[in-house]
Amino acid sequence: MLGDAVRSANHALDLLLHRAASVDPLLALLGVVLYLVAQAVRTLGWHTILRAAYPGVPTLRRRNTMAAYLAGAGLNGIIPARGGDIVKLWLLHRRIPGARYPTLAATFVPETIFETAFGSALVVWALTRGFLPVPVSPGELPHVDVSLIIEHPVLSAIVGAAVLGAGYGLYRLLRRRVADLAARLAQGVAILRRPRDFVTGVATWQALARLIRLGSLAVFMQAFSLPVTPETVVLVMAAQGGGRIIPLAPASAGLRLAMLSYGFVETTGHAVDIAEITTFTFGVGALLMVVGLVVAMGALGAELDTRSPRHALATAREAIARHRAAEANANA
Description:
Blueprint: H1 2-21, H2 25-53, H3 62-75, H4 83-95, H5 101-106, H6 108-128, H7 147-151, H8 153-188, H9 195-223, H10 230-241, H11 253-268, H12 274-303, H13 309-331
Helix pairs in contact: 1-12, 2-3, 2-9, 3-4, 3-12, 4-13, 6-9, 6-10, 9-10, 10-11, 12-13
């Protein structure tokens, strides 16, 4: 039994390696270049948001925002819990005199509005085409057990009143800090009070970045010998980003592969070898993770004025540790 499993695994690995060996390296390189260009273009929108939150700061330049974003995005591939985002904020904090971390963190909100809307549109498109599995029977839907509340209404009411009272007392005790925090957060989303600037200075750049990203996916698909049509490229983008919007397929790799396998049949009219889809999915993911890490080390080295990638990574880890320690002390 175990021997059969090992032989099956070895056969699958040999098949994937054989498919990977047929990848066009020049097209793969072009896909990487377009991907990095898309990342760089997207940072221009975030720079507009930061300039609205901190107007008139001469020490913050576009290249600083770009370096912070690329460094954090690359480190997110190896640091759990999106620790790379902390590196983004830390690098910007060094460039903006008097900057506060809550304000910098709040700039993520307008920066993700367009991306969330676009990703949701992709999910809706995938749902309407039947590419995403959804619950179809009551037994598949989550349910909330309220029997305890029904059986003990008086106790439940007392506990509810106590929780509300404690919450109100905590608010009265901390309302000054809450008001100060609210003001800092409002500063971070200042761009939203200027809709025209948001559209022209943020959403437009992000839309262009998405368009370039579609081109990058098309080139990668051509490099991995997958069928390239407008519909299949959109399908791949939906599969890559859909799991971030809803906790269904393609939240796991298996469901993502199933979605692509079924989607290619529906969009092209013929089946695509699952080995080719698997090689594409994991090959592109691994390639972009390595490239992102290399770019992150270069961006960190440039911002920290050091040529040593190891020193840059160690400094980033120290910054994350200090930030988390400060949060723990503030909550204590």
